[in-house]
Amino acid sequence: MKECKIIIMGFGSVGQGIANAISLKKEMINEKYGVQLKVVAVADSSTSAICQDGLDEKLLIDIKKSEGKLSAYPDCGNNMSGIDVLDAVEYDLLMEATPTNIETAEPALSLTLKAFEQGKDVVTSNKGHLAIKFSEVIQAAEENGVEFKYEASVGGAMPIINFTRETLSSCGIKSIIGILNGTTNYILSRMTSEGSSYDITLRESQELGIAETDPTQDVEGIDAACKTVILANSLLGIDATYDDVTVEGISSITSQAIDLAKKDGYLIKLIAEVSQDNLKVSPRLVKKGSSYDVNGTLNMATIKTDLAGDITVMGLGAGSLETASAMLTDVISILKNKY
Ligand SMILES: NC(=O)c1ccc[n+]([C@@H]2O[C@H](COP(=O)([O-])OP(=O)(O)OC[C@H]3O[C@@H](n4cnc5c(N)ncnc54)[C@H](OP(=O)(O)O)[C@@H]3O)[C@@H](O)[C@H]2O)c1
Q: Residue 320 — very low, low, confident or very high, per pLDDT cuts 50/70/90?
């Protein structure tokens, strides 16, 4: 039987979602594609569990939740992490879910390039290396003859990159305009439905765990700008980096501005635009009842094509199992191509 030996790097929300998704779907994948997925190593920021015979996905999650570190995994836990893990185990595919870093792109950049050098395929949910080093990373994957997939980096579970490349492959893509950040969409939706101020709504979102303790990346549009760069490079062939995007967030939006818009039949949304002459993230007025009128943490995007007209996709932009589902779909696509 064919085997695909997997390393999961980063074991927070998404990493644990990957373990959960593998545990739920490995039997189906084996039956349908004839490949046995085996998790041979999992690492967090300072510890790991490594076992060439395979680790138990549920036990990994239980141990991380109860002990806070993977070194507590019976017999296989240790204090190794990062690149050392890639050298310590025989594997086929790296599933990378470490924190996004748009200053240095690390640790994702070094981990990914190392895996490529080792001839391994990589699936990621990380935006950092894609937003600031897109062409370098893609070129390195090509030079090493490996597969590199990153559907989950934009829109979590919302299908956009593979969908546009594969299902819309007959079409030229003129632009993509959409809502690519769930946290800001949640804040703006709540401000609209409740008439509450930005500060109060942000605080409530933080209490609910929707906004992070430091919300800067989301509310200042940085996260959406990273996704704009990824879409520009991967779907419109624009050689862009983060610095090419004009970015304005939502922190200065007042409840009065939202009320005024509402009276005229409009909503204020944080909109990302990707086209040959515009890479932009900014609050914009959209018509109530239009395809941009989506609430809560949902993401959406309208892909404007030359042959098929406008196609709109929508889905959950974040979440542990939801994001992992996009990564597992990437893994299946690699299995179909290679195994
Ligand atoms: N959360 C979502 O819904 C979502 C959706 C789409 C994309 N993403 C992207 O997916 C990635 C992971 O997100 P997340 O929400 O899972 O983050 P998270 O909950 O903060 O988890 C990050 C994990 O990476 C580990 N880590 C940190 N530095 C590391 C290193 N040098 N080597 C190995 N592991 C390291 C952390 O270790 P410790 O456990 O020891 O702290 C933690 O386990 C991010 O790049 C994010 O932008 C997330």
A: very high
Cβ–ligand 1 contact at 186 (below 6 Å): no
Spatial separation of the C-alpha atoms in residues 93 and 339, rounded to whole Å: 12
- At 7-43, the pLDDT tens digits run 999 999 999 999 999 999 999 999 999 999 999 999 9
Residue 117, number of CB atoms within 10 A of its CB: 13
Determine whether the shortest distance from the Cβ of 12 to ligand 1 is under 6 A.
yes
- The yes-or-no answer on residue 120 being catalytic is no
Is residue 183 within 6 Å of ligand 1 at its C-beta? no
What's the length of the chain? 339
CA of 232 to the centre of ligand 1 (A): 24
Q: Report the C-alpha gap between 295 and 180 in whole angstroms.
A: 12
Check if 252 has its Cβ closer than 6 Å to any atom of ligand 1: no
C-alpha 267/C-alpha 287 separation (Å) is: 6
| Predicted confidence band of residue 279 (pLDDT cuts 50, 70, 90) | very high
Q: Which residue has the tokens 């070094």?
A: 110
> What does the domain layout of the chain look like in residue ranges?
2-157+320-338, 163-316
Closest CA to 187 of 206, 205, 169: 205
- One CATH from 3.30.360.10, 3.40.50.300, 3.80.10.10, 3.40.470.10 for 163-316: 3.30.360.10
Q: Which atom of ligand 1 is nearest to the CA of 69?
A: 40
Q: Which residues pair with 213 in a beta bridge?
A: none
Catalytic residue (one of 64, 127, 227, 280): 227
> What pLDDT digit, counting tens, does each position of 116-173 carry?
999 999 999 999 999 999 999 999 999 999 999 999 999 999 999 999 999 999 999 9
- 2-157+320-338 belongs to which CATH class? alpha beta
pTM of this structure: 0.97
pLDDT at 259 over 90: yes
CA angle 232, 133, 216 (to 5 degrees): 75
